[in-house]
Amino acid sequence: MLKRIGVALAVITMVTFLVSVGCRKRSKETDEKGPDTASAKPLYKATGNEGSITGKVSYEGAAPELKKIDMSGDANCAAAGGDKTADDVVVTDGKLANVFVYLKGGVTDKNRFDTPSEPVVLDQQGCRYHPRVFGIQVNQTFKVTNSDKTTHNIHPSPKTNPEWNRMQAQGSPAIEEKFGRPETLIPVKCNQHPWMKANIGVLSHPFFAVTAKDGTYTIKDVPPGTYTLVFWHEVKGEQTQQVTVGNKETKTQDITYKAGATARATSMEIGPALILP
Amino acid sequence: MIDLKNEASAGLNIGLHRIAVLLSCATVVLLVAGALVTSNEAGDSVPDWPVSFGRWLISSNNFVANVRFEYSHRVIAGIVGLITLVLAGWAFATERRSWLRKLGLIAFAGVLAQAGIGGLRVLFPEYKALIAVLHALVAQSFFAIVVSIVVFTSRSWFEPRKTKPDSESWPLRRVASATVGAVLIQLVLGAGFRHQAFGIVPHIVGAAVVTILIVSMVVILMRRHGEDDYLARPGKLVFGLLFVQLCLGVAAYVARVTSAGDPQPLEPMISLTVAHLVVGALTLATTVVIALRCYQVLEAGADKAVDTINPGKLHSSARGAAV
């Protein structure tokens, strides 16, 4: 019996060692690979014929009840001002906010685009992330600030970019990071305050927008061409439309999400295709 | 090969037994703390390891929200590690059975390995599911080892008992061993589901297999040895635990499904999940007790003569009763 237990422990130790080595190797490989292959593509230069895509995202059916967040675990969060209700599905007058809208295909696949020099800022205020959904370009600086009187940890869980988890105490300098590869979308979480959630769309181009409270969005400076317009909502899922933008044309592309449908990724998956409500 | 029957030279080691009981209780507390970490999604709330926010003792300002669960888990794990060290040392100094001394060292090695795996879980969040499942496997295995030390050092283990024949068809000792293995695997499948390493199907299939095995084991045990409290009592207990565990499993699952839209983990999902994990661990512990006692008092072959195990006399055929 002792021999068997000894062998089992040795196996566990070996597995742990291999996992550790594997983790380090993969982390190193991921870091070394750096950005995607976009650098081989020609840099897009504006021609002056660019158009835009605008529209509204509607919500059909009864708006979901806004659930209360329990912040009593951290007195600083409980005392902080601001909204204390869930903001995963925000519907105002039948319009859906926080839908990430972006282009796929066409020029976005064939060209590379300049990386903006200004950072995208994610602020922690009232123990909430501001904004909840946002886009960023590959290798653009992602700056995280903490305006709260408590400590947070910022933990994005990407699938193709390296995962990281860093703490940020009150008054700490901003955390600056970059994402080297396109990825839609990366969930961000504060594990200390589990209601704090955000989503980052990392794209190789600047053609994206997030719907405002009134459900509107505008993607500017779109090169003429045919694209797939993707609408992504963290609970309501993804919808697509084909869109062709002519020279200096402004296209209007509206879409509707229906109440009841959900694409919430939970641990409730029973099989590959079946997800419980 | 280990002789699970009482060795002539072995005596009751009350000190070691008390430490083992204390360690098993502390381990249950640690399992509760670990379950609270998972259920509250607090696993990454302290991003560094082995220190927490760069310190061994964190400030009260940091001990808020989910950090309470993660840091408490680390502190309780440290206490369990210390008790395990004391147990291993005590066994080494006072225990006459060499294999039990080794078991104490294995328990200490297990707790060290577990600490290392816990560290990997924190430092490599991209592999959290895989490492968390390994963490759960070692946790439950460690608990089983500690429970077996409690059994080996208990007063009832040293009481004179008659050996009994074990049937050649469906031998109880084999059924009990298989049940221990199945319960351990099922606990790992449950951890895999909680940590989203895999879906619910393997855990449901595992529940069916474990239910069949435990019911079969208890039916065989009660039919053949129902009059012997030494075997029947843990048999009845594991049957009750199985019933409670199945109810808790269904309730925890329903609570999890219905709370999928909640902004954060809330009651009753947290308590039901924690209770489900703890009752699972107690089920494992009880099956370990049954298996060890079966190997102690049952002999292979139905036709063998009934004999008595006595701490003062080493039974000649007992040497074959190694697990």
Structure, described:
The complex is a heterodimer of chains A (277) and B (323). Chain A is of the alpha+beta class and 277 residues long. Chain A has helices at 2-33, 75-79, 107-110, and strands at residues 51-60, 91-92, 95-96, 100-104, 120-125, 128-130, 133-137, 142-146, 152-156, 166-168, 175-177, 183-189, 197-203, 208-210, 216-222, 225-233, 237-245, 250-252, 255-258. In chain A, the strands form five sheets. In chain A, strands 7-13-12-9-10 form a five-stranded mixed beta sheet, with no helix packed on it. In chain A, a hairpin with a 2-residue loop joins strand 5 (120-125) and strand 6. The radius of gyration of chain A is 22 Å and the shape is globular. The termini of chain A are far apart. In chain A, 34% of the residues are buried. Chain B has 323 residues and is mainly α. Chain B has helices spanning 14-39, 67-94, 98-123, 128-152, 155-158, 172-194, 201-225, 229-258, 269-297; strands spanning 161-166, 298-300, 307-309. A three-stranded mixed beta sheet of chain B has the order 2-1-3. The longest helix of chain B is centred in the last third of the chain and has 30 residues, at 229-258. The model of chain B is unreliable at 310-323 (pLDDT under 50). At the A-B interface, helix 1 and helix 2 of A face helix 3 and helix 4 of B.
